[in-house]
Design goal:
single chain, mainly alpha, two-stranded antiparallel sheet, 5 helices, about 55% helix
Length: about 210
């Protein structure tokens, strides 16, 4: 009784499929070698398993690259080489454009290169600068108050009420919408008015 005919379809069982692949791969490589030797044929065979493992056969003394190159010449096709230089050039162009925009934005924050800005962008830039100035001004006042407290703890008596009023007088537009043109009126430094604490002569034995 002869062997039954095997249906040519995918083997569902993974173990059986792997065993069948190994056996038939060995038989295919054997037949390929016999065909190459007996008929003086130039053969290049590449096999990838379902798990991604590769095996190949190439007629000696040729190399697989030589057989592929001959195939390309005969068929008039060419396997595209992986060249990412164009992609790198595009990425570089994008980065250069972003860098130019950032540099232009920084110059505009310092009052340069504003001739091409429309009114809407100028108004937006002014509002952003005003918000930044308010934050800086608030931080400077906090530092000033901290300095007064430090001086008081160190034995020096300051005039916090009068000096605080002086700070508010120097910044009449603090906390309110202002124009960046008023930046010219901001003093560069604070002057602290301090006086030594007087000793209590009544408690002294002198």
């Amino acid at each position: 009784m002869g062997r039954g005919k095997i249906a040519i379809k995918r083997i569902e069982n993974q173990t059986t499929r792997q065993v069948t692949f190994s056996k038939r791969r060995a038989g295919l490589l054997k037949k390929t070698h016999e065909l190459s030797v007996l008929c003086d044929a130039q053969i290049g065979l590449i096999i990838f398993s379902s798990t991604g493992k590769m095996c190949q056969y190439c007629t000696q003394p040729y190399r697989m690259e030589q057989i592929i190159e001959r195939y390309q010449k005969v068929t008039g096709t060419r396997i595209p080489e992986h060249d990412n230089r164009e992609h790198l050039y595009n990425e570089l162009a994008v980065l250069r454009k972003e860098t130019r925009l950032l540099q232009l934005s920084m110059r505009r924050y310092t009052g340069e290169d504003m001739s091409s800005m429309p009114y809407e962008e100028l108004d937006q830039l002014e509002q952003e600068l005003e918000r930044s100035v308010n934050k800086v001004r608030e931080r400077k006042i906090q530092e000033h108050r901290a300095a007064i407290e430090y001086q008081q703890q160190g034995g020096l008596e300051a005039k916090p009420v009068e000096h605080h009023q002086q700070v508010l007088d120097e910044f009449p537009f603090y906390g309110e919408p202002s124009s960046v043109l008023q930046l010219a009126t901001i003093p560069q430094q604070f002057s602290y008015q301090l006086q030594l604490a007087q000793p209590n002569l009544q408690d002294s034995n002198v």
